[in-house]
Write a structure and sequence with these properties.
3-stranded antiparallel beta sheet; 414 residues; ARM-type_fold; Ubox_domain; mainly alpha
Length: 414
């Protein structure tokens, strides 16, 4: 693959109208036009008494430094020089990459080769496409994870995979390469990173697993779901780590895997519900993280084990209701609708009403939500009203609903 020369586009504002070069010392005439000091001095000293750009006669030949523009040019030059240096330093030709692949496969200067590839892949998207399309590269990289147990090497390989797996067709090749080789060893290497790697390595590992689970191939999700050690480590990270980016990556991975029916009961068995409840109850949890927690709860609520665990976790239900208008609204409504309307869970209904959930459900109805969400909200309100009138007391759920009916008469659309 040939490499074109690097060209840097100079903003026209930074060019001197006379020399057409980047200005080193911009100064402005009384006409408001800015020139490089040396160029305008030469113009005026040559006997001209006009502004070169406008050809207006100058009432004064005094010029003043344009400090703001000088500062902008300085910042731009620094950024451009840094970017160009990085891009130039990370160029790899087809021949060089072929040599790297041979060395990586033969374990010759493996770490050095991988470090250069990481630098190259990090530089720009074109480089990542080049690596993803290069014949034999993906297979060689995956093969390293099936052989090496050296932490630094494993971290570098996963970093490369994280950088290139989003490229078109790469996920499929990674998946194919894993299961053509020693996939147990591959998963063991990923587990090693999830346990002992840096935070960034853990995030990258979770993302690579998510890419594979997101494949439109049921088998890929099932294979990952069958790796009980992977699920155990991911849930342990979710329970113990406070890094928001890592939590988000783990949640995204678990959500992608949880599409598989067989994995949901196992996630529940590994105490997923208490872990998600704790995240939702934590006031410091980001909205994006809370939304992913609700999405995962909605997924596992579609299996009997998940429904039972949620029913026995009133704090979890209350936390979902509390965040109903803030995070994962559609998933929260779908979960509550399934538990209350489809399965008629009395415990969940009581918690929803006591948590002022009916008011929040009506507010969702009056917001700009999708039609199917509005329909679920309508069924929820009817179910909660009927359920509470049948089984609730005046001071309990039924009383809460009556208070709701008087207090929400004037709710306006959000």
């Amino acid at each position: 693959m040939g490499r074109e020369e690097l060209h840097i586009t100079v903003p026209s504002l930074f060019k001197c109208p006379i020399s057409m070069e980047v200005m080193k010392s911009p100064v402005s005439l009384c006409t408001g036009v800015t020139y490089d000091r040396s160029s305008i001095q030469h113009w005026l000293e040559s006997g001209h008494d006009t502004c070169p750009a406008t050809m207006q006669v100058l009432p004064s030949k005094i010029f003043v430094p344009n400090l703001t523009l000088h500062r902008l040019i300085h910042l731009w030059l620094h950024h451009s020089t840094t970017t160009a240096a990085a891009a130039t330093a990370s160029l790899i030709s087809s021949h060089q990459l072929r040599v790297f692949i041979e060395n990586i496969t033969a374990n010759v200067d493996r770490r050095d080769c991988l470090e250069k590839i990481v630098e190259f892949a990090s530089a720009r998207d074109e480089n990542r496409r080049f690596l993803g399309d290069f014949d034999g590269f993906v297979e060689a990289i995956v093969g390293v994870l099936c052989k090496s147990a050296e932490m630094e090497v494993v971290e570098l390989v996963v970093r490369v995979l994280d950088l290139i797996t989003s490229q078109n067709g790469v996920k499929e090749r990674v998946y194919s390469s894993i299961f053509r080789s020693n996939h147990q060893k591959w998963f063991a290497s990923i587990c090693l990173l999830l346990r002992n790697g840096s935070v960034n390595s853990k995030i990258e590992s979770a993302r690579v697993l998510e890419y594979l689970a997101a494949l439109d191939v049921t088998e890929s999700k099932r294979r990952i779901a069958e790796e009980e050690e992977i699920l155990t480590v991911l849930l342990r990270l979710l329970a113990s780590e406070n890094d928001f980016n890592l939590c988000d990556a783990v949640l995204s991975c678990l959500t992608a895997v949880s599409v598989t029916r067989s994995v949901k009961p196992r996630l529940v068995r590994f105490r997923l519900i208490p872990i998600l409840s704790e995240k939702l109850l934590n006031p410091n949890t980001k909205l994006s993280t809370a939304g992913k927690c609700v999405k995962l709860l909605s997924r596992v609520s579609t299996c009997p084990e998940g429904r039972s665990a949620i029913s026995e976790a009133p704090k979890c239900v209350a936390a979902v209701v509390e965040r109903l208008m803030k995070a994962g609204t559609e998933d929260a409504v779908a979960m509550l609708w399934g538990l209350c309307c489809v399965h008629g869970d009395k415990k969940v209904k009581d918690v929803v009403v006591k948590s002022n959930g009916v008011t929040k459900i009506l507010l969702v109805m009056q917001s700009e939500c999708e039609g199917h969400v509005r329909r679920m909200c309508g069924e929820l309100v009817k179910t909660l009203r009927v359920g509470c009138k049948v089984g609730g007391s005046g001071s309990g759920s039924d009383g809460a609903l009556r208070r709701y009916e008087t207090k929400t008469t004037h709710i306006m659309p959000c």
